[in-house]
Design goal:
The complex is a heterodimer of chains A (274) and B (105). Helices cover 64% and strands 6% of the residues of chain A. Chain A is mainly α and 274 residues long. In chain A, helix 3 crosses helix 4. The two termini of chain A are 37 Å apart. Chain B is mainly α. Chain B has one domain. In chain B, helix 1 packs antiparallel against helix 2 and helix 2 packs antiparallel against helix 3. The chains are: A mainly alpha (274), B mainly alpha (105). The interface between A and B is small, with 9 and 8 residues.
Chain lengths: 274, 105
């Protein structure tokens, strides 16, 4: 089976490398993309979509089909990490609890640990005392990071930014929270199931917008047919459609970042970790 | 007038950048090198960025004012995060058992 896989990969890779010689050179001014496509995008983006940022309109409108499958690839990456790494451990063998009034750490074997106790606080096996400076600074900054992420998502029409970048920034803020306190505190706020559901929701928002266009009008992901629903003219409807799609991408990317981090940092157990 | 103040600030910031980068190469161990890296992040960046904010405010209008506010926000956030990062790295070094350098007799 391994030999078969290796042969397949070598064959596909060899074919890909062989046929790249037919591609135009990098940055070739005479390539079809430079002659026909780029001038069209530069001249017509504003009148077609009312979006000043050409990159956003190419990414989410002219080539939105491509971006939809990029989002699907991200979903697949999250699922693959989950399936490869996650170890569902029902029976917990060993846990450490800190008795807060005295500062004594106790080890409990089996499942005889104190549930719902006020004086016992669960700690990780490689626990170190929390550093108050790092903890405070992270808690102070997470709000600003998340507001900035929303700005990046919403401002992708006018400046560098968009769904992928904004989603990564939100995901990074929650990972920062997990690093500065611990993994269990982060899982308590945004659990694994929520992350999985958010991932699927993001892809669903994207594909659902496309399907809605198909139900109303003609083509998949042709946002101008959303105009009666959004109450605008056809050009502004494309701008708004891009924004809806960007929100879907942001939700998917955020959730996948968090989900992969949970699985990687706790070696798939999600019981204790960074 | 304001342009000269901005120039002085930028040059002072560049001086701290120079000192910090020389220190990162020349100082003997991890902790003292991190100290000079901290100089670059705080003092050098504070002075040169303030100089840039003043320089852009030389011609005052709304766009330039917004740019200056963005620069000041960058200063504030770097001033919060960079010492924290330095602190965290030093903390990790001490927990990992790295001994500070001492001069050999």
């Amino acid at each position: 089976m391994k030999i078969l896989g290796t042969i397949t990969i070598l064959l596909c890779g060899g074919l890909l490398i062989f046929f790249t010689s037919d591609f135009p050179d990098f940055g070739d001014p005479k390539s079809p993309a430079s002659i026909h496509l780029s001038p069209y995008f530069i001249e017509h983006t504003l009148e077609d979509t009312a979006v000043p940022n050409i990159v956003t309109s190419v990414l989410a409108d002219y080539r939105s089909y491509d971006t939809m499958f990029e989002t699907t690839v991200i979903l697949t990456a999250g699922l693959a990490c989950f399936l490869l790494l996650r170890i569902p451990t029902k029976e917990v063998t060993r846990r450490y609890y800190l008795h807060e009034p005295t500062g004594v750490t106790l080890r409990f074997d089996g499942d005889r640990y104190p549930k719902g106790s006020n004086v016992f606080k669960r700690i990780d096996s490689n626990w170190v005392p929390y550093d108050i400076i790092i903890n405070f600074t992270c808690r102070l900054l997470i709000h600003f990071i998340q507001i900035f992420a929303l700005y990046v998502v919403a401002h992708g029409h006018y400046s560098p930014g968009g769904g992928f970048q904004g989603g990564v920034v939100i995901g990074a803020s929650i990972i920062l929270f997990a690093i500065s306190s611990n993994l269990r505190a982060s899982i308590k706020r945004l659990g694994e199931k929520a992350a999985a559901i958010f991932t699927a929701t993001g892809v669903f928002i994207y594909a659902g917008t496309g399907a809605l266009c198909m139900v109303i009008g003609e083509h998949f992901l042709n946002y101008s047919f959303l105009a009666p629903l959004l109450g605008t003219d056809r050009i502004m409807a494309r701008s708004h459609g891009i924004f809806i799609v960007e929100i879907g991408v942001a939700v998917a990317v955020m959730a996948v970042m968090i989900w992969i981090y949970y699985n990687l940092s706790s070696a798939g157990k999600q019981d204790e970790g960074l | 007038m304001i342009i000269y103040i901005a120039g002085v600030l930028i040059i002072a910031g560049l001086f701290f950048f120079l000192v910090g980068s020389i220190g990162m190469i020349r100082l003997p161990d991890f902790y003292s090198r991190l100290h000079s890296a901290g100089i670059i992040d705080t003092m050098g960046l504070l002075l040169s960025m303030s100089g840039l904010a003043l320089l852009i405010l030389n011609e005052f209008n709304l766009g330039n004012f917004l740019s200056a506010i963005k620069i000041i926000l960058i200063i504030v956030f770097i001033f919060l995060t960079s010492p924290t990062a330095t602190h965290a790295i030093v903390d990790a070094g001490i927990r990992a058992g790295l001994k500070p350098w001492e001069k050999k007799q």
